[in-house]
């Protein structure tokens, strides 16, 4: 028998904050502006300004011209943000967080696999966010890097204690300041006469590899979207807020980053220098640096919620304190150089995961998923996930030492030479969805007496 989903509440109820454990009430207080502001802020990232180098110079593919990278950014972000919007819908419909929803897809015990992977990727993202905050803060105001890391870690952890309050703060104050800052930096950079969008030494040959990098940044939010959309008043609002809010601002952020990189010859370590050269560049960069804690906040909070899928009675506040401490310690010893490699692995894991969910939902529409902790295992869905992951890696092995080498060797051994126009993200999504749909149909036949 399935355990009932936590009871939703409305804005008129007494509960206006997330309960400490999964069995508590679920406030439904977030409208379009609340969620749109949240996703819009997540789309703007200091990490994105430098990380867009993964689009301009995709791993395992020829470098792009700046104009090609801009188009790849737009295409990749539109695809990725639509995937994020889709992943936000089940949380709004059921009131359950992302990893709990996977109990209905994989079963209670098997949902621990993506939960652990999600914890690993979120700790990685949270760590990188603290690193880039420290990098920008040190460049803007000076001081020891470790002090910026510690300060950002403390602020991040405190924000996770009242997550819905954090979202309301973003809507009321932060989003307007961020919009002004990004618009100003974009105007300044694109008005520089020395900026050349055509560029030398690049081409369009690696377009889809670059687009995959943009998709990978967006889809990293897929396994956390329902952690926040579960508090949405409407399912349609959850989809539109995530798709529009995130998509628009990631495009703006990446385009600003590409312009800055073009001005410094593709040197990711110097990406903030052209911004600081603007008359009000320091003010704009400080606004973005202080706001960056919303990225690390989202990562720490969702890490805690993912852990709760393994330990439902664990107190989210205690988990946030522990996780915030962990990423702060890690950030003291990690560099930004590992970012692009990290992205390639993320995309290969979570794009096909969404494909499996979509394929299964199409076949089992109308059925109520079992979200109980010990829901029956569905190993065939794990098979579909793995098939999708393999499809991604065969097309785009990325650049992770060891991991990518093994996939490249497998591709060579099989004599596979994917065409340059093929997107690893789209292929893995479609393959995973089709395989999942076929296997889900097989499951249904076995469940009906007298068939199969």
Automatic annotation (TrEMBL):
Top-level division of the source organism's lineage: Bacteria
Ranges of compositional bias, category Low complexity: 1-11
Family: Belongs to the purine-cytosine permease (2.A.39) family.
Coiled-coil segments: none
Main localization of the protein described in the UniProt heading: membrane
Assigned keywords, A-Z: Membrane, Transmembrane, Transmembrane helix
TM regions (residue ranges): 38-56, 68-88, 100-125, 173-190, 202-225, 237-264, 270-290, 318-336, 342-363, 375-395, 421-442
Species for this entry: Actinomycetospora chlora
Cellular location(s): Membrane
One Pfam family named in its UniProt record: Transp_cyt_pur
Protein name in UniProt: Hydroxymethylpyrimidine transporter CytX
InterPro entries membership: CodB, Pur-cyt_permease
Region ranges (Disordered): 1-20
Bilayer topology annotation: Multi-pass membrane protein
């Amino acid at each position: 028998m399935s355990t009932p989903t936590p009871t939703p509440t409305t804005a008129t109820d007494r509960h206006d904050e997330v309960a400490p454990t999964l069995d508590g009430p679920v406030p439904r207080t977030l409208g379009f502006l609340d969620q749109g502001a949240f996703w819009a802020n997540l789309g703007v990232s200091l990490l994105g300004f430098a990380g867009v180098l993964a689009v301009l110079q995709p791993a395992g593919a020829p470098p792009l011209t700046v104009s090609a990278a801009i188009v790849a950014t737009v295409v990749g972000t539109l695809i990725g943000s639509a995937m994020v919007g889709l992943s936000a819908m089940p949380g709004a419909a059921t009131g359950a967080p992302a990893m709990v929803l996977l109990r209905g897809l994989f079963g209670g015990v098997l949902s621990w696999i993506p939960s652990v992977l999600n914890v690993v990727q979120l700790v990685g993202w949270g760590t990188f966010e603290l690193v880039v905050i420290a990098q920008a803060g040190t460049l803007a105001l000076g001081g020891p890097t470790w002090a910026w890391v510690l300060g950002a870690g403390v602020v991040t952890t405190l924000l996770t204690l009242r997550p819905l309050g954090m979202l309301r703060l973003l809507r009321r104050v932060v989003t307007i300041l961020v919009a002004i800052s990004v618009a100003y930096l974009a105007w300044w950079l694109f008005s520089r006469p020395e900026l050349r969008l055509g560029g030398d030494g690049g081409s369009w040959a690696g377009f889809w590899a670059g687009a995959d990098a943009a998709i990978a940044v967006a889809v990293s939010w897929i396994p956390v979207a329902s952690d926040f959309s579960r508090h949405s008043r409407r399912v349609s609002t959850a989809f539109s807020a995530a798709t529009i809010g995130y998509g628009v601002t990631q495009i703006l952020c990446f385009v600003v980053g590409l312009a800055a990189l073009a001005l410094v010859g593709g040197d990711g370590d110097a990406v903030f220098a052209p911004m600081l050269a603007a008359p009000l560049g320091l003010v704009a960069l400080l606004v973005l640096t202080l706001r960056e804690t919303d990225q690390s906040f989202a990562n720490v909070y969702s890490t805690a919620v993912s852990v709760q899928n393994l330990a439902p009675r664990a107190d989210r506040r205690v988990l946030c304190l522990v996780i915030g401490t962990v990423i702060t310690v890690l950030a003291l010893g990690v560099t930004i150089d590992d970012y692009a490699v990290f992205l390639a692995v993320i995309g290969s894991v979570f794009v096909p995961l969404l494909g499996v969910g979509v394929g299964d939902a199409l076949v089992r529409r109308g059925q109520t998923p079992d979200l109980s902790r010990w829901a029956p295992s569905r190993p065939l869905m794990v098979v579909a996930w793995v098939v999708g992951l393999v499809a991604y890696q065969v097309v785009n092995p990325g650049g992770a030492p060891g991991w990518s080498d093994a996939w490249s060797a497998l591709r060579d051994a099989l004599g596979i030479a994917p065409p340059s126009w093929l997107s690893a993200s789209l292929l893995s999504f479609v393959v995973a969805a089709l395989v999942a749909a076929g296997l889900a149909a097989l499951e249904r036949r076995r469940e009906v007496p007298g068939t199969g």
